[in-house]
Design goal:
The chain has 233 residues and is of the alpha/beta class. It is built from ten helices and ten strands. The structure holds adenosine-5'-triphosphate.
Length: 233
């Protein structure tokens, strides 16, 4: 569904990604693992059309999307949840969700408030609260829920477990499982191998902007030297 080949990206003169190759299949949850600064966010942002200097090939459903405007990439069916929560503090939970509403898509589930509130019971309770009154974890949930209002087929989640309480991390894992059951594909960037293992079908590891590993979690478990080398802090 998503194919990234020989992706190179730079910020100004600094080359950040070199020949990054990865793919996400239909209804697959794929983890992009790496330490702080390894290039996970830059990979996701490049796919979403948010990095200016990029080269290589990115195809979604067979269509080349690299270099397209970000809103066109969203319209094609990709949903992006950035690492930093971008909710509107002065709007209620429901109003925040309304902001994300897009036309339904024939090839992806259509999300309604009720459907989302089943998936995010915390948000259901707080539907009339202002965004700024939510906890960090709830704001993270709201960011994901708002992205789902765009009815994406593939969701790119940048470090969903970062900086949130363990109980919310568990809920996050449940939600990602639910997205898969709904038929969506998900690419998550993560530093947390434990969380990634729970939610994902397979993994990539990126280090210094280069792909170092592609394979199963079982293989990573059997070869702990790989995670020690590329993930241990
Ligand atoms: N806008 C920018 N301008 C210049 N350099 C940047 C910019 N954004 C990121 N970088 C640099 O690019 C490198 C990769 O950053 P990136 O955010 O992709 O890493 P990451 O793996 O997502 O890590 P993190 O967990 O810190 O988000 C880092 O060295 C970072 O300092």
């Amino acid at each position: 569904m998503l194919d990234v080949k020989t992706l190179t990206a730079r910020y100004g003169r600094a080359q950040i990604l070199s020949d990054v190759t990865l793919s996400v299949g239909e209804n697959e949850v794929v983890a992009l693992l790496g330490r702080n600064g390894a290039g996970k966010s830059t990979t996701i942002k490049s796919v979403m059309g948010l990095v200016q200097h990029v080269s290589g090939q990115v195809t979604y459903d067979g269509q080349a999307i690299l270099g397209r405007a970000s809103h066109m990439i969203c319209r094609a069916g990709l949903g992006y949840v950035p690492e930093e929560r971008r909710i509107f503090g002065e709007l209620t939970v429901e109003e925040n969700l309304e902001v994300g509403r897009r036309e339904p898509r024939a090839d992806a589930p259509e999300w309604t408030f009720e459907h989302l509130f089943e998936l995010f019971p915390n948000l259901a309770e707080r539907r009339r609260n202002l965004g700024k009154q939510l906890s960090g974890g709830e704001q993270q949930m709201l960011t994901i829920a708002r992205t789902l209002m765009g009815n994406p087929r593939l969701v790119l989640l940048d470090e969903p477990s970062e900086g949130i309480a363990p109980v919310i991390v568990e809920q996050m894992a449940t939600i990602i499982g639910e997205l898969k059951r709904e038929g969506l594909s998900v690419l998550i960037s993560e530093q947390n191998l434990h969380f990634a293992r729970i939610v994902s079908d397979r993994a990539y590891i990126i280090e210094k902007g280069q792909m170092r590993y592609e394979g199963s979690f079982a293989h990573l478990d059997a070869h702990p030297d790989i995670s020690t080398r590329y993930l241990a802090v």
